[in-house]
Design goal:
The protein is α/β, with parallel strands linked by helices. It is about 25% helix and about 30% strand. It has a 9-stranded mixed beta sheet with strand order 17-16-18-19-36-35-34-30-31. Strands 25-24-21-26-27-28 form a 6-stranded mixed beta sheet, with helices on both faces.
Length: about 850
């Protein structure tokens, strides 16, 4: 303890002298002495030592998209300087933040995995304050570009109450003019063939007049481009378009300036839904698909797509069911499959897969996002296998594979997810199959030499899971040559190579690629390619060429979490071909009446079928009469929707018997109508709207029947921006009779789809694209608000990082004056009471008065 103004302690000896000289003041009474001592302590401001020696410095590092490139060149140097300059009793902590905030573990020198779509400074400050140690002096240091995306609110009061000063170090933009695409506006819904207007609003920061090129894309295809003149800092571009098919269309607008220091605000997107009534989306390998023709003849609206690689989740908008007719899984994007899962389970849609060489397991759907939806299992049991395969897997282990990704099991490196995919491929191979695995950078390293999968499958898997990124680049031809040299050691007739590579890092060495791929293809072996990234990345065309020349499949995925499923799809498609082309008798069951109002006159036989097995709780309307007794027509309810599997082909090759079947049209129409589910009844509707990144749902209902239904089954709302596994629920509030509303915040850059469930009815909405990402809007008021906050806490904007360690002496002690004054009041009251009742306590007896001396004479 110490005293803020110790001079007041001189009052004590002064009072002692006064009390000695003037006894009548009774200053020797204990309670009066206590009152005088407490008064002196209060005036001297007695303080308690609050903190241990040293300083805790919390450094808040802005990892948002807008600041990442600006801070990246400095962070290593800055963090090293702060570590080197801290004292023996000092502690240093880092908080990485963006839209969320994470305290970086002490043993982690690289950034934590955070969401970069925001700069929530207040959220990071609150985290640091709650995590700090109360017995330590604390300072905060903010490293940022100075543009928060949330109000700073009351965080200043929190810092002041906690006596924690905030310093900051801002990084400035480079040169150039900041062009901003403020908004892309279009109607949410239009009728097919109806013209509508799209507006682009452009703003110019730092200048008033300029010219900037732009382009507008529809579903990834440029529909218009040009230059616009910006006058007085503003420009507006208008474009008229119309949509010829049903479903939702994705529009993307881009500004293309030569030199812009903030490229992130040069982009905007929106979705426009073209309404044409309830329809069925038929994804087919056949331009004249007979299934689509049958449905059209029965008055069912059909959207036929023969180029499945162009599909995006928007095509599901307005659809009541989806039919996949002999289309391989590699031609259907992972994003579309994720949306299909949500479409069936939550939006109440229907899914039908038809048989064929490119369907079910032989089409690569085993382990895909659709596998769990279908009522049949695509496994091929060992006793049904007729061919064995020799497979080589070539894994990119270059430096780019060290990058971290967020998974359900926590943050992992990309190479770990590739290892998991390879291990899953080895698990799917049969015991008599052969496998070899190579890790490749500039050279090829044998991880698993060519050998049979059994008896040491587990050892092979453990070896694969141990592959780590060693840095450097990747040489694809070197990896393919090593794989082919190993595969030539076996005489198995079926040989296959899986090449995995980063789609942005695959072209560092391409010399000799065509020669080795041609050599493999000429030997009737195949090559499939899995590219981690987008199909527009720098190495995508090269990887696509390898797959095309190699006669295999090509997969692209930007989400490393999808890799195990993709490896599984390709492995099963190659190693477990289960398409049987011999005519087979059909046996019907009574289950058909569960989805039809009348019995069906079945065909006697089918020309071919995909060997599958009926799942538990699924029903089958027909099965084969051969030794497999395999399901030919199976169906079940899946969440709010329905799914069915017809394992024999209805179009293309091996359909002579089926196409001659008189009940062909009745079968197709009845099954499709069942999949389309119930019509939405009158008196019930949902409206979805966006304000920036704020999603609002309005649920309207009319009539006493709906009042009763909603009282019995309260509505629920759910939406997703990345598949069923990431769906989020919304809470309703009643605004008035017949009107509920719900709100949610969306993540920029990801389209949202959702559904409202009312009893047995599902009302879908979306896709909706969140508005302009606030992370890139860079509000000019942001730096001013931060500087005001810093000043209010006693901190400052620093240029030399060593200033962050400056002393906080004023924080080391806490005044005890309030407590001393409280005790003083109690002591005064006690003294007054004692005086009133005549209760006197003295430390020494009062001096007796001396009798007067006798007078002398």
């Amino acid at each position: 303890m110490n005293f803020a103004t110790p001079a007041w302690l001189l009052l004590l000896p002064a009072l002692l002298i006064i009390g000695w000289q003037w006894p009548r003041l009774e200053l020797r009474r204990p309670l009066r002495v206590l009152c005088l001592v407490l008064l002196a302590l209060a005036l001297a401001d007695l303080r308690w030592k609050l903190y241990a020696p040293g300083l805790d410095l919390w450094v808040l590092v802005d990892r948002s998209d807008s600041a990442a490139d600006l801070l990246a060149p400095h962070l290593h140097e800055w963090e090293g300087l702060l570590r080197q300059s801290k004292g023996a009793n000092d502690n240093l902590y880092f908080v990485d933040f963006g839209d969320d905030a994470v305290v970086r573990p002490e043993d982690l020198s690289t950034a934590s995995e955070i969401n970069p779509n925001g700069t929530r400074v207040a959220n990071a400050l609150r985290l640091a304050v709650t995590q700090r140690k109360n017995n330590r002096a604390t300072r905060l240091l903010l490293l940022s570009d100075g543009y928060p995306t949330e109000p700073l609110g009351e965080v200043g009061e929190l810092l002041n109450r906690s006596a924690i000063p905030l310093d900051m170090r801002l990084v400035a933009l480079g040169g150039g003019t900041d062009f901003v695409l403020d908004a892309l506006q279009a109607p949410n819904r239009v009728k097919t063939e109806e013209p509508f207007v799209i507006d682009m609003h452009v703003r110019l920061d730092g200048a008033t007049n300029a010219t900037v090129p732009y382009q507008l894309e529809r579903d990834g295809v440029v529909v218009t481009k040009g230059e616009t003149q910006i006058q007085s800092g503003q420009a507006r571009i208008r474009f008229t378009d119309h949509i010829t098919r049903s479903g939702a269309v994705h529009y993307t607008a881009r500004l293309l300036p030569q030199n812009d220091p903030v490229p992130g605000n040069n982009f905007a997107e929106t979705w426009v839904q073209a309404m044409a009534g309830a329809h069925v989306l038929v994804i087919s390998a056949y331009p004249d698909d007979p299934v689509a023709a049958i449905l059209k003849s029965q008055g069912i609206e059909v959207d036929l797509e023969t180029h499945p690689k162009t599909l995006n989740p928007g095509r599901l908008s307005g659809a009541r069911a989806v039919i996949l007719d002999n289309v391989p899984a590699s031609d259907v994007s992972v994003d579309f499959m994720k949306a299909m899962d949500f479409f069936v389970r939550e939006q109440g849609g229907g899914l039908l897969m038809l048989g064929g060489k490119n369907s079910f397991g032989s089409g690569g759907y085993y382990g895909s996002k659709l596998d769990d939806l279908l009522p049949v299992s695509m496994e091929l049991r060992d006793e049904k296998r007729k061919l064995t395969v020799a497979m080589a897997i070539v894994l990119d282990r270059s430096g780019s594979m060290r990058a971290s990704v967020a998974t359900s099991a926590g943050v992992r490196q990309k190479i770990e997810m590739a290892d998991a995919g390879t291990a899953e491929a080895v698990r799917q191979l049969g015991p008599r199959d052969m496998v070899t695995v190579f890790a490749v950078d500039t050279q090829a390293y044998t991880v698993v030499p060519l050998s049979k999968v059994e008896p040491d499958r587990s050892t092979k898997i453990n070896n694969v899971l141990g592959i780590a990124s060693q840095g450097g680049g990747i040489c694809v031809p070197t990896g393919l040559r090593a794989a082919w040299d190993e595969l030539q050691k076996t005489d198995l007739p079926q040989k296959h190579v899986i090449l995995f590579a980063d789609a942005n890092d695959a072209t560092q060495e391409t010399l000799g690629m065509e020669d080795i791929v041609k050599k493999i293809a000429d030997a009737n072996a195949t090559i499939s390619v899995i590219g981690l990234g987008h199909d527009t990345d720098s190495g995508a065309d090269f990887l696509r060429q390898v797959a095309t020349l190699g006669g295999g499949r090509i997969f692209f995925s930007s989400d490393a979490n999808d890799l195990p499923g993709i490896f599984t799809q390709d492995t099963v498609a190659v190693a477990r071909s289960s398409y049987l082309t011999d005519p087979t008798p059909l046996q019907a069951t009574a289950s058909w009446v569960e989805l039809a109002s009348r019995p069906l006159d079945w065909t006697k036989s089918v020309d071919a079928y995909n060997l599958c097995y009926l799942k538990d709780k699924a029903a089958q309307a027909a099965f084969t009469s051969d030794e497999n007794t395999a399901p030919l027509v199976a169906f079940w309810q899946r969440g709010s929707g329905r799914a069915a599997a017809v394992t024999f082909p209805l179009a293309g090759d091996h359909t002579d018997l089926v196409r001659a079947w008189p009940g062909y049209g009745d079968f197709v129409t009845t099954l499709t109508r069942w999949l389309m589910g119930n019509d939405t009844p009158e008196g019930l509707g949902v409206k979805a709207r966006l304000d920036g990144d704020e999603l609002t749902l309005d649920l309207y209902y009319d009539g006493p029947n709906w009042e009763t239904e909603i009282a019995r089954n309260f509505p629920s709302a759910v939406f997703t921006q990345n598949g069923v596994e990431n769906q989020r629920a919304m809470n309703w509030e009643r605004l008035e009779p017949g009107h509920f509303a719900a709100h949610a915040r969306l993540t920029p850059g990801q389209p949202a789809i959702g559904a409202v469930q009312v009893g047995k009815y599902s009302l879908p909405f979306g896709p909706l694209a969140p508005g302009a990402n606030l992370e890139w809007m860079r509000d000019p008021a942001g730096p001013r608000a931060l500087r005001s906050l810093v000043a209010s806490t006693g901190g400052k904007e620093i240029t030399e990082l060593l200033e962050a360690w400056r002393s906080l002496d004023q924080q080391y002690y806490r005044s005890l004056r309030p407590w001393v004054l409280m005790l003083l009041v109690l002591a005064v009251l006690a003294e007054a009471l004692a005086t009133r009742v005549g209760l006197f306590i003295r430390w020494w007896p009062r001096r007796k008065a001396q009798p007067p001396k006798a007078a002398t004479g």
